[in-house]
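Oxoglutarate/iron-dependent dioxygenase
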Amino acid sequence: MGWGKSLPVPSIQEIVRNDSNSVPERFIQEENDRPKLVSENLPDDSLEIPVIDFSLLANEDENERRKLDLACKEWGFFQITNHGIEKEVLLQMKTAVAAFFELPIEEKMKYAMAANDIQGFGQSEALDKYSTEIQKVAAEIYANLSVLMGLERDGLIKLQGELKQGIRMNYYPTCSRPDLVLGISPHSDGGALTLLLQDDEITGLQIKHKESWVNVKPIPDALVVNIADALEILSNGVYKSIEHRAITNEKKERISIAAFVLPDEQREIGPLETMVDELHRPRMYRKIKYIDYIMQFLAKKLQGKAHTDIVKLEIK
Ligand SMILES: O=C(O)CCC(=O)C(=O)O
Ligand SMILES: [Fe+2]
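Structure:
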């Protein structure tokens, strides 16, 4: 598990417990960054991110693989159904995470302090099972992306080493002024691939698509998958690591669980030779050791989609 400990941010559960009606000043977004929930500029609800049937992918279905290719090029995001992870495993993970967020702050701190915990969660059977299943799904997506990028099925794994995984749990309390705040600011993910288990009912995730924000409407038991920075770089910008954010709502708290699939930190990442074509698609990024990329990524915090700029080459 790579990135060790969670950052000591003030516990939102504690803030809400103390006063659930006011929005602390520092959460209020600048006018331009507010989610605009009631004005014009509403997210276009007619648009939906692509849905991929994982069982077809696993059966080497050419058509589904083409859909995956398009989804990664045009959206950077897709939902997968029929991923084969048992409902029970998803439910147990959600229950364990919800229980964790219910713990009093003192108990949570104990987990946060313990070294080698996944983002302050401690060891748990639910987490281990979930993480193992996610790994299998990620490996199959990797295999398909490898083929789409002109490699053998195990091409990406060979280049990146064994896949690492980090889990982040997000808790968004209800908010009396969802129009003023964001649950999570716009960012792209720094790993290779992110698999997100989100609430079955509450819409919170929004992604940038053609300059506007599009809601990712929950499909019960589906996983939301997105291309993250390392795959954007490996694909020489053909697949996009898209900016996304989460909004809050007045009615119901929301939990999401993000599994970040990461390259081996000691490996170099850079555009695959198969994705570079000096005439039509010149090399867009320089090579960088993944650990160096992450150090620079973390130094910039969550600030929009400037991350891959770290390695972008000037194209003349
Ligand atoms: O809660 C969500 O839907 C988004 C979470 C997210 O983007 C992240 O954890 O990186
Ligand atoms: Fe994210």
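The CA atoms of residues 45 and 215 lie 7 Å apart.
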